[in-house]
Amino acid sequence: MLAELPIRFDQPQWLLVLLLLIPVFLISRRSIGGLSRTKAYVTFAIRCLLIALLAIALAEPILVKRGEGLTVTVLLDRSQSIPLPIKNRALEFLKEAAELKERPEDRLAVITVAKDANITALPDPMSAVTVGSDVADPTATNLAAGIQLALAIKPNDTANRIVLASDGNETVDSVLDAAEIARANKVPIDVLLLEYEYDNEVIFDQIIAPPRARQGQTADIKLVLHSQKQTTGTIRLKLNDYHLDLNGPAEGDGLPVQLDRGLTALPLTISLDESGPHQFEGVFIPDDPAADATDRNNTAVAVTFVGGQGRVLVVDDGVTQSQFLIRALRDAGITTDLYRPGAIPEQLVFLSGYDAVVLVNMPTYAFTREQDRMLRAYVHDLGGGLVMIGGDKSFGAGGWIDTEVAKALPVELNPPQTRQMPAGALALIMHSCEMPQGNFWGQKVAESAIKALSRLDYAGIVEFNWGGGGGGIQNCAWAFPMQRLGDKTAALNATKTMVVGDMPAFGPSMQLAMNGLMGVPAAQRHAIIISDGDPSPPSASLLQKYIDNKITITTVMVGGHGTPIDANRMKAVANKTGGQFYEVKNPKNLPQIFIKEAQFVSRSLIQDGETYQPAVTTRLPGPTQGFTAVPAIDGYVLTAPREGLAQTPIVIPTSEGNDPLFAHWNYGLGRSIAYTSDVSSLWGARWAGWERFRAFWEQSIRWVMRPGSPTNMSVSTRVDGETAIVEIEALQADASFLNFLRTNALVLSPSAEARPLPLQQTGPGRYRGQFETDEAGAYLVNIAFASGSGATREQGNIQAAVAVPFAREFRAVKHNAALMRQLAENTGGRMLSGSDPQMVDLFNREGLEVARTPKPVWDFLAILAASLLLLDVAGRRIALDARRVAAMAGRAAGRRGDVTTDALAAWKRTRAQVAHRRPQRKGKGAAAADIRMARFEAGQEDASLAIDVGEEVPTDRRGGPAKIDRTEPQAPPAGEEDDGDYTARLLAAKRRARGRDEGEGEGGADG
Questions:
Q1: Which of 343, 805, 935, 1007 sits most deeply, having the most CB atoms within 10 A of its CB?
Q2: Could you report the per-residue pLDDT of 496-531, keeping only the tens digit for each?
């Protein structure tokens, strides 16, 4: 019965404080402290109520409100494991069932579930079953996240029920674990099973290949496939993007196969002639497309790392600038491959096959954002080496400022803050609203351009709005006024808030941009216009002003209303001012274009035009050990020394300080080198002819290269469900087990996200770690290890890979009815039938606990008790005259008619109090007083006149009472204080009356 009470106490022991009422009652009976009986009773009641309120507040009372409504939260599984027609039918079925809601107080909420859970409708009586925009990633199923989100948004003032529509094939977390939380909260989960089964599905389960091998070995691999029934098809296999001939002398390179029902394993032997990572990619092609329900699970991938001599990747846009370096490295026995930046795959597996990467005068716009992140991860997380060699398109002059690669370099790409040098100025004129996601890409390109500039450069962003009306210059405004960039915080913040409007004409915006460019002391001035080309072109006079002021304009045309004529006009603007014209079809290319154009104003970072003699400042161990002097150079890119552990052994002395020429440091697990001049005839002709050129660069490259993998360690990987397992076996030189190995292992996901991989020793020389594979692609594992100390210290680095060819979603060939049934049974839910919406009562209240909403009220009681405490103190300390209070209230209310009555009552009381102290008077004064009293009682005299007891009333010539002059009030006798208290005034009146009585007595005696 206690559960049904509307109030409960969290700390009921404090109710014992109510026993204090007994001593309070006893004390109050013995002493009332000079108070009247009524006031004593009132004070006692207030004090008892105060104690009761305090006791109840300390007991923490909670009011429990009974709820009447029901909230149903519908979870819709939108993952790709469910065929689309079945998902759509389930959506329509639940929509019709929800429309049968009868009670208006009932609420509905909707959550879509795939890789993540998203709310599409919050609990509300007006909500409907919908999937919204349905933007969830469908490559995974996280039913547990959906239940957790449903519990998070459930109202506490209604009963709650969850309805889950799914096939039961989860790939992330455990829905049964989440269901335990729902059961603890007494929330049942009803299940609508989405049933399907493929009877003609082929899954390329995996390619089993050794994780590591030696150069020249042959590798035994296995192709594992799973088929629902007997079928035929062809398997094709690629090794590093080259198709292997699996069919021998027969026609074609594919291997014809006949698959039986169940698993089929096909062994192959592959020769591994080159070092580096070898990626196998196999695909199954059925002879009859109807024999395979989906082709998304017909591909498998595996990676084998082949050990060999160190390899170096040189990235150059040609061969002229890197030819001397490549020749020197190859003469030194270092395997060197030359790639153009566009030929580098956006895969870390490719980079991990090299021990060092050399960028020769490469600008950042030659690489994608993904490649930029990959290069940093390659050094920091995979332990690779990075060398950046200068030139007129490298370092800050190549737009590398504020990139991911810049973080890995041992120099600061911004020039020194104390350096006095000419700066550049860039104006961005933004008009990109009519292409898809125009504002988004407008912000992205502005951000990319600003990041490519140095802190000393100037920049401004011009936007267009309709606020001024008329389309003139008053409509153009600076989203970021032309100013020096500094730390770029303000400029980057401005790019996030700017509004890209649809300008009708280029002229006003270009005029505003030119005013800003000419208002700063810049050596180079450049403007970039992004538009769809439909604004009217600028006037010839305005273009001539740009030309006269040597301001170049680059125009970028994107999709919109622009015509070929508009494109020609934009191209003409760029050509006349010495800029470039770009016509962009894919907006993803826009940031790289703006980075390229932004470097136009960064030319001041290039220091050339004279001969510079470098100085070797240190002979500490490192890549330059043993070199005491180096040749002169004809130019370099200005950078600043990086604080911290970076070393700068070779500098270029100038009048303003030492500029870095050669710097190095350790970054994460890898190393990097920065050489700010070039290795071609542009600035480094003397270096190319230097007799120690090969020795210098061989020593530098070998220092930066990742250490070779040890031969006494083997690593194996496998995938168990969604969990990848990595195992290492380590031996010492004498073949004994290598124990207590210190490791630092990382896993790089396909999206280049680094995760730590803890390794635990599980046996003699054996170590094990595991991680979750929550996305498709290749996971790279890099293990740096060390053992021993001093002369016996061993350290090294070893790599492995785990390949997940497709999402686990596509492994499902049938619904999981057993899991869904267990989910309903564990929580007390129902198995719903999807045949007839009329038969499904989503808002069924059977078995649900009535919602009770607890509300703490102790704080209200505490405030009430504090108020009573003030009343208790006031009642005992403050004495009030009820009549005076009533009179004051009457005057405040403006009741003039009560004044006569109050004055007359006060006169009667005063007269009665002093009457017994003096004899009955029969003189004129007494008679006059009696007459006046009669007139007062009859209402014929003004009661506001001052009347003093015992004073003769003056008469006029007719014998009637004369009017009293009240203009000058008489001061009280000396020594008396009128403090405004009623008692004090009464005593003073008594004294005055007594004095008059004594005076009359003396006068009578004399008479």
A1: 805
A2: 777 666 778 888 899 999 999 999 888 888 898 888
